[in-house]
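Morning F.,

Quick status update on the modeling queue. The single chain you submitted on Monday has been processed. Sequence for confirmation:
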Amino acid sequence: MRLILLAAPGAGKGTQAEKLSAHFGIPTISTGAILRHNIQQETELGKLAKQYIDGGNLIPDDVMIEVMRSRLAEDDCKAGFILDGFPRTLTQAEALDTSDITIDAVLNLVVPDETIISRLSGRLECKNCAATFHTEFRKPKVEGICDNCGGELVFNPEKQMFSCPYCASDFTEAEMEERYHTQNETAQKEADADAKTLKDENDEAAFEEHTRLYECPSCGAQIIADETTSATFCYYCHNPVVLAGRLKGNYKPAYVMPFAVQRDAAEKEFRAWCRKRWFLPSDFRSKQQLEKMSGVYVPFWLASCLADTNMSGIGQVVKSWRDGKYQVTETTEYTVSRQAKIPFERVPADGAAKIEDALMDAIEPFPVQEMRPFSMQYLSGFLAEKYDVDWEKIVPRIQSRVQTASEQVINETLTQYTSIKNKQVHVNMTNLQHDYVLLPVWFMSYQHGGKTYHFAMNGQTKKLSGTPPLSWAKLLTFCAALMVVIGVLGGLIGGSL
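Structure tokens below.
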């Protein structure tokens, strides 16, 4: 049996290939696995493939055709095979069609987009071996560790996946599910405390064990990084930070919203934002300045509640008309009251005192549907701010936001009145619940004229906020040039009169 499997990423092609391979007793031939193995072994093919990959180019068709021709000539393919990832181009398909290899069937797996998105969100992948995992459905044996090689799993914002930088193996979805369930049952029977700590994502000790705390002696920022990430400077003021030791206390978040915007995309967006502003200092968007841009998970509290809202006041309806020579105005007053129970879900408030609340408010909303249960892998390659405003101190701010939003809802029911006198609105929050989460933000700071300017970009939506400094030299030059133009135009106009 000679088969070709076609499908979009996340459609389950690997799962079906594994089942078909076991059923027919034939190998699955993956071009990706062949290339990764050769790159790891530093073969001539691997060196050639690495040159193309590092250059951001596709491997030429003639190279891939020769690789597959050689692989399909091996003994284990005599009884049949399953092709996964080949052919990818028309040239490759034509080469296969004109060869002496007969294909029995081509299977195209069609899966709804919603299902694919759900599968790929939170997916874990080994960078070198492409072993597939998932934060919910196919967890690795040990959190953050590749089952095959023991390498660290690293999150990729562009792919919304994790990558392992060490090995070269493939795992199917079905195999990983079986492995995880088997390991889970075994872990429950084991008495090894260290293994349980690593396995249990809800254990605060695991979070403390695998994070490091850095402290900025200049601004006092306390920065959290995973144990593989070295924090060298403060994202907030750009001064060097020092290692303060392990994190202590209840700082493990319930959820995290992964970065969807990579650094190069963030820089591109920031440059476009700068081009719209004429009077920025010359070095504001320099390469040296943009290199200081940092991806930071900002601590947020998300509150949900039921707002029991009561409003009272005097509604005025003013009518005006003309009666002969007179202008008549009639004002009618009504006693107005409103009662409403308004549900609020996940109202945000940041838990970092030094970060301006207005700066964080300006880059909202965050798409909360993109949040995932917290996993240490999301921190890899990024920084996180340690919250220093606890929940009890956040409640008044939540109350204020709920109050304002509730009044807006009530006001939408009062449009029939010209005005409202003596309006009083009382909001009582009930069923108040909260979660501690980390939300993605790209930060950049800039020092100019003895003042530090802060800028923030939503790591999911690219929404950007910040007040840029002005270059007075550029502004004065512009004003001088403008006065010259006005003077010339005035002379021309005056001379023509």
